[in-house]
Amino acid sequence: MAQPDTKKVFFENLSGTGKAIAVLTSGGDAQGMNAAVRAVVRMGLYVGAKVYFIHEGYQGMVDGGENIEEASWESVSSMLQVGGTVIGSARCKEFRSHEGRLKAAHNLVLQGITNLCVIGGDGSLTGANLFREEWSGLLTELVDQGLIEADAVQKYSALHIVGMVGSIDNDFCGTDMTIGTDSALHRIIEVVDAIMTTAQSHQRTFVLEVMGRHCGYLALVSALACGADWVLIPEMPPEDGWEDKMCQKLSATRSRGTRLNIIIVAEGAIDRHGTPITSGIVKDLVVKCLGFDTRVTILGHVQRGGTPSAFDRILASRMGVEAVLALLETTDNTPACVVSLRGNQSVRLPLMECVQMTQEVQRAMDGKRFEEAVKLRGRSFENNLRTYKLLAHRKPESELPVSNFNVAVLNVGAPAAGMNAAVRSAVRVGISEGHKMFAVSDGFEGFYKGQIREIKWADVGGWTGQGGSLLGTKRTLPAKHVEKIAEQMRMNNINALLIVGGFEAFLSLLELITARGKYDEFCVPMVMVPATVSNNVPGSDLSIGADTALNAITTTCDRIKQSASGTKRRVFIIETMGGYCGYLASVGGLAAGADAAYIYEEPFDIKDLQANVEHLTEKMKTSIQRGLVLRNENCNENYTTDFIYQLYSEEGKGVFDSRKNVLGHMQQGGAPSPFDRNFGTKISAKAMQWVTKKLTETFRQDEGRVFANTEDSCCLLGMRRRALVFQPVVQLKDETDFVHRIPKEQWWLKLRPLMKILAKYKTSYDVSDSGQLEHVIRNRPKESDTSVAM
């Protein structure tokens, strides 16, 4: 008899019956908080718990009464796409006092609440932990004052706390990303992209001030994403004499023909002596020293506002579900934990370990130990800073190493947003390491036609924000033209290849490694950086371009649903791209709040379609007004988008009507998202550093040439769980379904039950990655230098 799968836990085994869970948002608001609230409420109700909103944060807990309200499934409908926090947030001085916490404890006991999900920053979470530690003493006081019965002390003996970090500053140690950070970066980059057009028209310098009183993450990552000329952050103040160096840099940039300069200043920026550096000071300096027409833009609370990005919706939804699971599994001895993101995994960390590490950063900055502060922020922050310096500040020719190696960069496959950022990064890192860089136009088709040119540092200026492929890209594979390509490699003395592309790029490397037996020209280091909206490349959990496509899908779905606002009940059938890979449909469905998503990887039949229609019909009768169904373009050759539309239209008669939309190539277009710009920049920089290492290792002094013919000299650099890993492409063949052009195993399939749960379907949820309380790591393994979370 088959053994049960212990990794997949059905919710009968994780019952929340009899438990009361309250959710509150505290401190500053952040986009995505509503998605977290929605996930907590729906997951809590799903497992049979009572769930309560606490309005206005800790103030509402202290005041009690109508501020503590029981939540229903319908009460969180249409909340996913709303920015801020609909249950309110307030800073509460009263909760900082013992008397305030006593009132709060009384109000919770009145409702039988002993489980708290707190969404906020380190101050809010520290307050929650103190409340938890005082809980039993507070109950004893309440008994002594005659406010609760004596048996309540035993009945409500322990308060369980799970935190989720909602902060646009990304200033909390232990997590790669906090809820709201990605959306804030979207707001900043939208403004920067708009400003760059007007700055270019008038040859202006713009100084942008972004939020970050104690943390420079937003300033640093937005500088990396837009290719800013200079950035000022509190963790790493500039060296004395920075004023002259900055002006020299701006002047040198203009002398190379650039018509604008961008300087980004964090609001908490300081110099080495602790003196604030404001945007006004920077502007006056540029005008005085260079005479450039200079303007200041202070973004302010624009960064907190607007619709949450796809990343924040998914992050918050995953964290909300994980928080409820943590509360279901907690015991009286379990320490308060915070749900964090490591790579692409949700993990639980002891709350106070994270808080103490966060406070250590501030102590290091106060003590002017800035190098230590950067390290304490984590490897992702450290790597962002290192990469920015490498790409923004060009060394003088005299200081560059001389390698005498020629490296070619090309795009292969369909265009994907972020490809240009990856090419820019490869070119500039290559030049910094002494290589001569060559650009190949139109992929391998251009390669065999000889469309190869040397590309310089200034040639890739301004590329990070450009969509599509500026080099040009084709799906042509090299096998048919291998002789001509070998000839071009020989004529241009190409010593290494860096390919940015999708599944075709992977197939190309397999063909080139096969051709090594006949052509020595291909016995050189070759590396691939995955870039495709479909996210179907084996060996990598994420590809450049997929995040931009997800945001396009999410934004469009929001607008489509809004189009039915105030009309009769309506269901929208949306077709997404992806070939046979269901990533965009599944993860886009989670971000947009879809009721179903049909994909090739999860076979379905007419009974499943009928069950979905009946499920939606039932929901339409009782609560929701709009339904959303996503369909991957190749999920089933018979159950086409038209078929599903007609089925829903017929079966929904009298309850709802249906509409269909095919999103098409809009998913490939547009400016790259901040995530794709930074992921492309950092993964490509790492790939180029690997190329340099391999060139040094495989250069034969006696023959005066590079010769690399081992498996590990032809690799794909991919994100695997929490680390960036170089994998020989030959070894990835067994992991690949070549017929359908997808990996045989795909991590995101674990997210599908989450979408179904939040859409009120009964299902099972794989919790094999959950339940482990980990610890904060000061220095992570070196492979994870480039975090998935930018």
UniProtKB/TrEMBL annotation:
Enzyme Commission identifier(s): 2.7.1.11
Superkingdom of the source species: Eukaryota
Recorded coiled-coil stretches: none
Catalytic reaction(s) noted: beta-D-fructose 6-phosphate + ATP = beta-D-fructose 1,6-bisphosphate + ADP + H(+)
Enzyme class: transferase
Matching Gene3D superfamilies: 3.40.50.450, Phosphofructokinase domain (3.40.50.460)
Pfam families: PFK
Metabolic or biological pathway, per its Swiss-Prot or TrEMBL entry: Carbohydrate degradation; glycolysis; D-glyceraldehyde 3-phosphate and glycerone phosphate from D-glucose: step 3/4
InterPro entries, alphabetized: 6-Pfructokinase_euk, ATP_PFK, PFK_vert-type, Phosphofructokinase_CS, Phosphofructokinase_dom, PKF_sf
Biological process, per Gene Ontology: canonical glycolysis; fructose 1,6-bisphosphate metabolic process; fructose 6-phosphate metabolic process
A Gene Ontology cellular-component term: 6-phosphofructokinase complex
A GO molecular function held by the record: 6-phosphofructokinase activity
Active site: D169 (proton acceptor)
Keywords: Acetylation, Allosteric enzyme, ATP-binding, Cytoplasm, Glycolysis, Glycoprotein, Kinase, Magnesium, Metal-binding, Nucleotide-binding, Phosphoprotein, Transferase
Regulation: Allosterically activated by ADP, AMP, or fructose 2,6-bisphosphate, and allosterically inhibited by ATP or citrate.
The keyword Zinc belongs to this UniProt entry's keyword annotation: no
Residues annotated to bind substrate: S167, I168, D169, R204, M211, G212, R213, E267, R295, H301, V302, Q303, R304
Region of interest (C-terminal regulatory PFK domain 2), ranges: 406-790
Requisite cofactors: Mg(2+)
Annotated compartments: Cytoplasm
Domain Phosphofructokinase: 21-326, 406-691
Residues reported to bind beta-D-fructose 2,6-bisphosphate: 475, 532-536, 570, 577-579, 633, 659, 665-668, 741
UniProt region (N-terminal catalytic PFK domain 1), positions on chain: 1-393
Family to which the UniProt record says this protein belongs: Belongs to the phosphofructokinase type A (PFKA) family. ATP-dependent PFK group I subfamily. Eukaryotic two domain clade "E" sub-subfamily.
Protein's name in the database: ATP-dependent 6-phosphofructokinase
Organism: Gymnodraco acuticeps (Antarctic dragonfish)
